[in-house]
Write a structure and sequence with these properties.
By secondary structure, the protein is of the alpha+beta class. The chain has 2 domains: 107 residues, Immunoglobulin-like (Sandwich); 160 residues, C8orf32 fold. It contains 6 helices and 15 strands. The strands form 4 sheets. The chain has a 5-stranded antiparallel sheet with strand order 3-6-1-15-10, with no helix packed on it. Strands 4-5-2-14 form a 4-stranded antiparallel sheet, with no helix packed on it.
């Protein structure tokens, strides 16, 4: 069974136009431990830091709530994780539509069937999804829809904001990974397939990284559909979700798993720096 060990360093530096007197934030930067992924090390350092508490939220994501009550002009966050990803046994055959449409399933997974402000699809996308509602299985429909979304959109940074909705993404016919994920979620949910947003890292995009080599990585987003079990798909890259995908958390959309959010008292942010590096160590 293949496996891969990653060391990921996620640094965020926020500079303000003067001194901030207090800040309260929630950080979601600690990868989950689950079958196929073991988080061997996870530490988060914040400067300045007055208080912190780590808890698991409703969706199963590790959250660090923190406060910085010392006046400061710069807030620095460094999250370091060592994660081992391993291949899981091949999943059983995809379940049929009856399993997805069962009343018990609809009730249990209602949060992943309901649209959000981020995922609510325009009619054209809902119609695209209906084109595949007679596929042999929900998974076959999802794979076809992912291909259609990927073909219709172009990957372009900067053309959508972090609050972009599926309708806005479709109008622009482009965006980044979270936009591809939101549009796909909306399409799947519109034909009754439970689906959830996955936030994490993509450590390698082209080729292999030699052991001991450090390269730039990035935040990434993909989706999981439910058809008797959760099955991952990556709308941005179309290819399989594998050993180079590291899961941080899951939810209905980006808002449930945003890496950094909160509030502060003081002047506005003048500069935000983000750096993520990956080292293959095994």
């Amino acid at each position: 069974m293949s496996s891969r060990r990653h060391r990921i360093v996620h640094r965020t530096t926020m500079r303000y136009d003067g001194e901030v007197t207090a800040a309260h934030n929630e950080l979601r930067m600690i990868p989950v431990s689950e079958p196929g992924q073991a988080t061997l090390e996870a530490r988060v350092r914040v400067r300045p830091l007055s208080w912190s508490n780590v808890y698991e939220d409703h969706w199963g994501t590790q959250v660090m709530a923190m406060e910085s009550q010392t006046p400061h002009g710069v807030l620095e966050i460094e999250a370091v994780s060592t994660v081992e990803r391993s291949e899981l046994p091949v999943q059983a055959d995809a379940a049929g539509w009856d399993t997805v449409r069962d009343e018990g399933t609809i009730d249990r997974l209602s949060e992943y069937l309901a649209q959000t402000g981020r995922t609510d699809p325009p009619e054209e996308v809902a119609a695209l999804a209906r084109d595949h509602a007679d596929a042999p299985t929900p998974r076959a429909a999802a794979i076809a829809i992912v291909g259609r979304v990927h073909e219709a959109l172009s990957y372009e940074q900067g053309i959508t904001g972090w609050q972009a909705t599926a309708a806005e993404v479709w109008e622009r016919r482009g965006g980044v990974c979270q936009d591809f994920a939101h549009l796909t979620l909306g399409a799947l949910r519109s034909i009754g397939i439970p689906a959830r947003y996955v936030s994490g890292y993509l450590t390698v995009e082209d080729g292999e990284v030699e052991r001991g080599t450090t390269v730039q990585a990035r935040n990434h987003a993909w989706i999981e559909l439910w058809d008797g079990g959760w099955h991952p798909l990556d709308p941005t890259n179309v290819g399989p979700v594998g050993l180079d995908h590291v899961v941080i958390g899951r939810g209905r959309d980006y808002d449930d798993v945003s890496p950094f959010r909160g509030m502060f008292v003081g002047p506005e942010v003048t500069d935000l720096e983000l750096e993520i590096t990956y080292t293959r160590i095994g």
